[in-house]
Automatic annotation (TrEMBL):
Source organism: Pseudomonas borbori
Keyword set includes Kinase: no
GO MF terms held by the record: hydrolase activity
AB hydrolase-1 domain sequence ranges: 21-136
Record protein name field: 3-oxoadipate enol-lactonase
Amino acid sequence: MSYFDHDGCQLHYEEYGKGAPVLLVHGLGSSTRDWEYQIPELAAHYRVVAIDIRGHGRSDKPRERYSIAVFAEDVAALIEHLGLEKVHLVGISMGGMIGFQLGVERPELLESLCIVNSGPEVKAKSPRDFLEIVKRWSLSRLLSLDAIAKGLGRLLFPKPEQAELRRKIEERWPLNDKRAYLASLDAIIGWGVRERLTRITCPTLVISADRDYTPIAQKEAYVKEMPNARLLVIEDSRHATPLDQPQRFNSSLLAFLEEVEQTAPTALNKDQHAC
């Protein structure tokens, strides 16, 4: 375990392997532990760095308002702390939002970007969107972390053979600090950088589960707005693709990273689907 200080906050990170740096950024209520199926395979080829975002895991949980911009500044500070010129950043859900934020604010730090089940904004576009956001905000405050964990486990891993994955969610989610969890949720709601996506010129792979919370069409739309991005759909997967489809996810990510490493920056072929 390693730590560094940024802006008065002690942040936890882990390092594995050698080679070009790959930085893993987890989602809301998660931690470095949820990359357990990726780290061993990635570390066989790359220098893997995984961070606990402030308010999560082993990092400090300051009693303050959080924002995606602050989370991105923490990630940038880690890159600079380790003396890395550029990284391949992989972010899932909230981690993908952090990746987008870093991409528009500090594009010089990114060799490539992999966005998993995420988007460049969380804004209500319709009455239905507004109601869904209010519902999530309200239930997160009314329910205990144990209750949220059980609900998430059933939602993310509904198959009988996914009992072990449900157990992990039910075990890990209640370890969150409720105040920090809510502050992180508040940081997400209303955030957006979609109007600045053209600033992200590095090779970008957007991975979407076919059964993610948001439809594939939404990812297709924003991918078209990015100058060097493509979409990959992984079937029979929900929001936690690195956990429910680790082999497909890992092979797709490794192929993308190898392509970026071996070729000069060029426009990637868009809209690739995987079975």
